[in-house]
Design a protein that fits this description.
By secondary structure, the chain is mainly beta. It contains three helices and 17 strands.
Length: about 240
């Protein structure tokens, strides 16, 4: 199932994307926790796509590799930086070069108490695409990634949550800028598996329904400048934004 959120005249609706249109559905997180199918909840609707989830917590993963003293490190990014598909993102002019990073985003389906690397898939609702926009030149004075990650709109997310994708899939990753390929890679090039990263995060801090873990950029980043169209590809998901 592909789950999206749509802005309608009656407010945001959660829908499944189907051949017959955007079909409203009941709470997918409640259904996931109960282990039952998600039920339809109305006739097809129209509207513009919103971010596919509303996380309380967004975690970023630094994939340092097995030879680093800490192969995996996590940091927090404000959920208020999230924007949906086709958003315009104003790049900061006071933070140096902006880099787009194409990443797998894992959407948590239920509270992660008890999550381990072995059973991590039991806590994952699905996967979506994220562009973890960053200002790496701030790193020298900002080792905690606050300034470098906090630009307004610096977390484009979407367009849908694909519940059929697995955290074990070697998902193709791509970054396309103004129609030109800037990076072609896959999740299999991450030093640490998605399972190991989720277990690391859950071992320190419990996550909940709708929370997002951004899994890192395995050679899937490139500088961007105002006026460019940026597309992040995760499998066959396509997330587009326009920088201004």
């Amino acid at each position: 199932m592909r789950i999206a959120r749509v802005a309608t005249p009656d407010g945001p609706r959660t829908v499944r994307v189907a051949d017959e249109g955007l079909i409203p559905i009941a709470d997918p997180y409640a259904a996931f926790a109960a282990g039952v199918p998600v039920q339809d909840a109305g006739d097809p609707v129209r509207g513009s796509l919103l971010p596919p989830c509303v996380p309380t917590v967004v975690v970023g993963i630094a994939q340092n590799g097995p030879d680093h003293p800490s192969p995996v490190q996590a940091w927090l990014k404000s959920p208020r930086t999230i924007v949906g598909p086709d958003a315009e993102v104003r790049l900061r002019r006071d933070a140096g070069t902006t880099v787009a990073e194409a990443e797998v985003a894992v959407v948590i389906g239920r509270p992660t108490a008890g999550l381990t690397a072995r059973n991590a898939h039991e806590f994952v609702l699905g996967i979506t695409a994220v562009d973890d926009l960053s200002s790496p030149e701030r790193a020298a004075s900002d080792p905690r990634n606050f300034e470098s990650k906090s630009g307004a709109g610096y977390t484009p997310l979407g367009p849908v949550i694909d519940t059929a994708l697995s955290i074990d899939d070697d998902l193709p990753l791509g970054l396309v800028v103004d129609g030109a390929d800037r990076a072609l890679t896959s999740a299999g090039r991450l030093p640490m598996s998605l399972r190991e990263c989720l277990a690391y995060v859950a071992g320190w801090s419990e996550l909940g329904p709708g929370d997002v873990v951004m899994m890192g950029a395995p050679f899937s980043q490139a500088p961007v400048r105002p006026g460019q169209c940026v597309e992040v590809r995760v499998g066959d998901l396509r997330l587009r934004t326009l920088t201004v």
